[in-house]
Amino acid sequence: MNWRALFARQEFIILLVLIALCAVIAIINPTAFLSVQNLFRILRACIVIGIFALGTLMVLISGGIDVSFPAIAITALYISTRIIVDTGIDSVPLAFLLGALIGLGLGLINGVFIGIFRLPTLIVTLGTLNLFRGALLFFVGSERIRLSEVTTNLADASRLNLITVPLARGEASLHFTFALLIALALLVWFILSRTMLGRAIYAIGGDREAAERAGFNIVRTQFFIYGFVGLLAGIGGIVFGILSREADPFSIVGTELDVIAAVVLGGALITGGRGTVIGTLLGVLLITVISSNLVLLGIPTEWQRFVIGVLIIIGVGIPALQALRKRRLRVQTA
Amino acid sequence: MAELLRLEQIVKSFAGVQALKGVDLTLNQGEITCLVGENGCGKSTLIKIISGFYQADHGRIVVTGQPVAQWHPIEAIRAGIQVIYQDFSLFPNLSVAENLALNSQLSARKRFVNWREIRGIAQEALSRTEVDLPLDALVSDLGVADKQLIAISRAILQDARLVVMDEPTTALTEKEVRALFKVVRNLQAKGIAILFVSHKLNEVLEIAERVVVMRNGEKVLETPATQVDARQIGVAMTGREIAESTYDFTPPEGETPLLEVNQLSLPGAFEDIHFKLHRGEILGITGLLGSGRTELAKALFGETPAQRGTIKLNGQPVSIRSIQDAIYHRIGYVPEDRLTEGLFLQRSIGSNIVTSTLKALLNRVGFVDSDRVNQQIRDWVTGLHIKTQDVSLPVRSLSGGNQQRIVLSKWLAANPEILILNGPTVGVDVGSKDELHQIIKDLARKGIGIIVISDDIPELMATCNRVMLMRRGRIDEQMTIRQTNEHDLSAKLRQLAV
């Protein structure tokens, strides 16, 4: 790959922006930014949004959009916690299993509306976003559960670390669920680029009719996509519960736009057909650095939204400009 | 020559209307057969019968001597029949290699992707058609001609024995048509049968060995290509003689030109353009795709304004910086791609006609005056012979020729002084083409200045009184139609391609 091809890639541009941003923060406030604690803090903040982003990436590539995953995540977390509390089986793996299954089930409900009834994805998931959350609050409950008050293992999982680095003052640790994020990222990468199922997702996002004529099973592929997104959302919900040590039915919902923004910044096209795992992870990292480290620059938190907005417009604007230039170039050479 | 596919007495009706009235057609290995006919003559239905998309009501299909019991797309593909559709069915977001290999990977029921294997398959596909394309390029970055070559190469990969091409040259430049013909002859040499469907009779005569003409669901002519000429085919297609007359016009001495363009430039598109257009004149602009002819038209229409130079209307310098400016100066533009640029396909025929004049049709309160709207729609439908039962039907229900008339009427309703027509009869059949040419000439006689952009030489000969050749953004030559002839002009155009 030559330099020009590299520069034409959104992933590379995002990487440059990320490096530039980090450089600026590091120069202005080196002690606070350039520390192992801060690095681990940023990575920890990436985990939940990263897991959600992987699912969103898949949906965007297929030409759809899913805004219901936060509702799926919180529903999965809350119901799983209730089951664990009610049965008394205080197990972390069980929490993940329950969360994944509930997420999968709710995701498949989206799949039915989108795959079989062919309804527009935004409308369906806007509907189920409210439906799932409303059902949760009405039928299951709206009371916040503090994990430390009712569980031991699940509550202790918040201190289960992957790496712990001793420092001069105290220590810095990276949570074990970071490994989960990496594993899921590898899984999604493998599905997207090494399986026919993944190519079907790209094909549907590129030209649905052509995909149908080529013999791809569109309905089955969409069931997989929305089921898988639900599953990831369920897992993400459990991770969120472990990290925050509580199951609050009023949390998570509201993060969907940040997640979609991260994926779009990472090069996925909102119109479908394009997007990569590495770009998505970079987009997540960028959004996280902005929302957790702009404070180090002395920029008030109110401005974070503004910066994210500017970045999205630039991030989407650069490829558009490149496409325009390419078209001009073609006229000249033709 | 060995027979590959034989259709016997094929009958097909839709809702009581016979689209095919007992058609026989034999396709032989290694033979190029051209199927021509006007819109609605049944040739698309026939293609769909061949591809198994439709099932015939009566008649037999015989493959290499064996009558077939079942004939659905899957059987057709197994028998080696591949149809290249006009939209190519490609994935714009995927690479050339993947587009080539995806179908065969799917039919092999692969579950995992082996990128090296995909490149290998793609390489193989391109070498079979002797086409050279970058395997890693995204299909969306390629031009129409390359996309078509990919679609053909992909079809060959599926062990095609018959390749059906539906209007393959519609969007190609002269040079690209040459390249396509080379590929087609290549396939022929490998013993593949080709069924080539086209409107362009000169191309048909060049590539075909056998010509089959259909009209009203019947085969009306079948003959070796060497024994017919374009006129005879035209007569067979329409059932009547088409007399294309030339358009004679000389502007009155000393008249101020309607439009005068001097040193008009848009870097990267065209340079130093000057020409004059008088009332009642039809000026043809030709050149290859990318010669700047479309960009020039768009500049005159304010879509992509020129950066330097002057435009005078009736002797007065004007500035055209936007489409609104152009419309204000009563310049109308009928784009090349009427489907995406000129029409609201889902909206009704009537509302498409009045879109550009709605403002003039408002009543005193500012609401649309529906009586006047309906009156105007009726006027244009009858005036331009638009064939439709109901003006409330969506425009997409019309044939190409009729759609073009809607675009035309939309602009005529705005009462233009200058009308720029880009490829006015692309994708329109011979009969409607002739009628459109007559309409264009009638408009000019009423005093409108018309610019026709086209690479269809017979069309320029039939409609224009002056022709301008463009090459790499510059005017290569200007001539009156009497200074040239069809042969001379096509030779010049072909030279530009080199």
Low-confidence stretches of chain B: none
Second-tier CATH architecture of chain A: Orthogonal Bundle
How confident is the prediction overall: mean pLDDT of chain B?
85
Distance between the termini of chain B: 36 Å
* Strand order in the sheet with the most strands of chain A: 1-4
Please give a handful of descriptors for the protein shown.
heterodimer; A: 334 residues; mainly alpha; ABC transporter involved in vitamin B12 uptake, BtuC; two-stranded antiparallel sheet; 74% helix; B: 498 residues; Rossmann fold; 17 helices; 20 strands
Report on the structure:
The complex is a heterodimer of chains A (334) and B (498). Chain A has 334 residues and is mostly helical. Chain A has one domain (8-326): ABC transporter involved in vitamin B12 uptake, BtuC (Orthogonal Bundle). Chain A has helices spanning 3-7, 10-28, 30-33, 36-61, 69-87, 92-116, 121-140, 147-150, 153-156, 177-194, 196-206, 208-214, 218-244, 256-265, 277-293, 302-333; strands at residues 145-146, 161-166, 171-175, 246-247. Chain A has a two-stranded antiparallel sheet with strand order 1-4. In chain A, strands 2-3 form a two-stranded antiparallel ribbon. In chain A, strand 2 (161-166) and strand 3 (171-175) form a beta hairpin. The model of chain A has no long low-confidence stretch (mean pLDDT 89). Chain B has 498 residues and is of the alpha/beta class. Chain B has two domains: 3-238, Rossmann fold (3-Layer(aba) Sandwich), CATH 3.40.50; 259-497, Rossmann fold. In chain B, helix 3 (96-107) crosses helix 4 (115-129), helix 3 packs parallel to helix 5 and helix 4 (115-129) crosses helix 5 (144-157). The longest helix of chain B is centred in the middle third of the chain and has 16 residues, at 174-189.
